[in-house]
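Known limitations

Structure tokens in this collection are predictions and should be treated as such. Users comparing against experimental data should check residue numbering before alignment. To illustrate the layout, the record for Kinesin-like protein is reproduced below. The input appears on top and the generated tokens appear beneath it.
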Amino acid sequence: MGVDHPVYSKSSRHRQGYVSRQLIDELKNCIEEREDELSRLRTESGATDSEKRVVCLSAENESLKHSLSVTQGLLQQLSVIPTQSSSILIKENENLRCRVQQLESSLQHRAEQLAHLERQSEQSDWRRGEELRRREERVRELQLELERERGREPQVKIVTQTVEVESPTTLMQLAEARESNQQLSEKLTSQNEKCRQLEEHIRKSDEFSCNLQHKIAAYEREINVLRQELLKEIDHLEQRKEEAVAAAASCSVEHFQSLQDQFFNLQKRLTALPPTLRTMKTDYASLRSQVRNFSDFYGAAINDAKKQISAAMSEMSEANKDLLEKYRKEVALRRKYHEQLVELKGNIRVLCRVKPVLKEDQHEDGQSVVVTTDPNNESALSVLKGKGRSHNFELDRVFHPQATQEEVFQEIEPLITSCIDGYHVCIFAYGQTGSGKTYTMEGSTENPGINQRALKHLFSEIEDRKDMWSYAVSVSSVEIYNEVLRDLLSKDGEKLDIKINPDGTGQLHVPGLRVIEVKSFQHIKKLLAQARRNRITFGTQMNQHSSRSHALLMITVLGTDLASGAKTTGKLNLVDLAGSERVWKSGAEGERLKEAQNINRSLLALGDVIQALRGKEKHIPFRNSRLTYLLQDSLGKGNKTAMVVQVSALESNVGETMCSLKFAERVCKVELGPAARKIEKGGGSHHCD
Ligand SMILES: Nc1ncnc2c1ncn2[C@@H]1O[C@H](COP(=O)(O)OP(=O)(O)OP(=O)(O)O)[C@@H](O)[C@H]1O
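Generated tokens:
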């Protein structure tokens, strides 16, 4: 037992307990009201009525006591269920029992008080009875006296008659007698009045007691109604208790039934278990033996597999060796063809790019376009000069104004590949100020120029070759302005000098120049941005500084053949030259003339170097300017050079355009001879292919 049934829920039990407590409280209040009423009546009413009322109230009290005991009994009955059901209800019952005990003791106390009041009422009744008796006696005495006085009157009349006949003395006596008679008569009247008042008082007392009786009757009716309600509530509680008990019983039966079912099921399963257990045991034993044998079997299988794998691997490595050999041959062949192609194109290549006419160029006079390209001939260009005289130029490649940055770079790309292979390469942009040199070399963020594209290609080539070659790329950047060299990768832009390397190799050397090793294209992009920023910063105080300075980006690519250990040294010089306009011809003076002379000294020196190379002279005047001095090892014989000549298409610039194109034509005629690859064989001996 002791099963908590959901029907007889905690909340319903709480509700029952709460209703019982409420009933008891109501009863208690009712008793207290009645007792108050009783004491009030005792003080107000006469003895006889009070007596009756006391009797009534006592009876009422008795009936209330009875109700209480019934409720208590009901509570005790209810307490049986909770004891079986749960400890919460037991506690609740305990509380109720305590409460009932408290009520009983309070009721007893009230009963004692009632008895005391009864005694007091009896005494007061006795006193009132005494008083009434005394008053009745007094009335009787007064009536008797009145009777007596009435009886005396005829005697007075006789006296009066006697006086009439007898004497004046007797008349006086008669007057006195009359006076006394008068007094007696007054006394009688007052006594009568008193009597009437007493009668009136008695009538009022009767009326009052009648009222009280009515009230008592009303109270009795009320008590009856309450009693009926209480009885009803008790019946209701009884009914609910029975329902709860029945529900709890049915629930326990159901629960018991389900437990029984479970028990039977368990029993069934228990009986079915031993055979399963036996099967499992045999399975386990067989598995154990399998596991024991498995390691032997597994070891043999692994050995077989190992043998197969090593055989396959040796086969593979043989095949790989063949493949690698083939690949090497292929690469060598590719390089050879590439070299042949570049050589066929010429190791010095002259490209020309015609700048498109932009909005900002249209504010001057002479806006007509005088430079035209030939859609059928990628090398031809013609300039209309004067009246109908046109000059035709033939260069390695001419880019029309709408040519894209990518198209220009495609022409340059083979040179970048050569640099990785170990060649020294120089690419420079030449042309008058504003003709688009910086645009072609640096470009914009959205549309980068040769510099960024070349470096991107360089790193992607390196990535492609990583299985056979390892490369170290380092970069430095300088600006030459007024023949002064500044490091564009140092913050303060310190001035630098060019010297011969003290190691006796005759190589050039710039002490203090920052040479930064770069691992990725992203890194080099940051350095390019830094160089651009520094060039702008250094030039802020000088008018048209950037137009008059040469910017050089120098990249060294050291390669190591992972198989043979051979080492290559490739160099790539990317140069954005200063404006090539003939300032000295325009009558510049002082500082401006000096500046123009210095700028043009570099450009003139470049022209001289080109001229000497063209004439295959023994002495090439590299040392005539810092620019040619720096470009010495990538511009001369055995190297690869590309010059991008930038020209404006507008009539207003025709003079400078003609100059630039004539210079380009001269460069075109230079023969640098076959390019030499800078490679050191694995053993350390220097060798040029
Ligand atoms: N092919 C082109 N397409 C669009 N805009 C161009 C092109 N070439 C040059 N420009 C624009 O023309 C202007 C001048 O070009 P840029 O600064 O490159 O000339 P520059 O020759 O380097 O001049 P400077 O000698 O003064 O440095 C720039 O605003 C540039 O963006």
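For this record: The chain has eleven helices and 17 strands. The longest strand covers residues 469-481. Please report discrepancies through the issue tracker.
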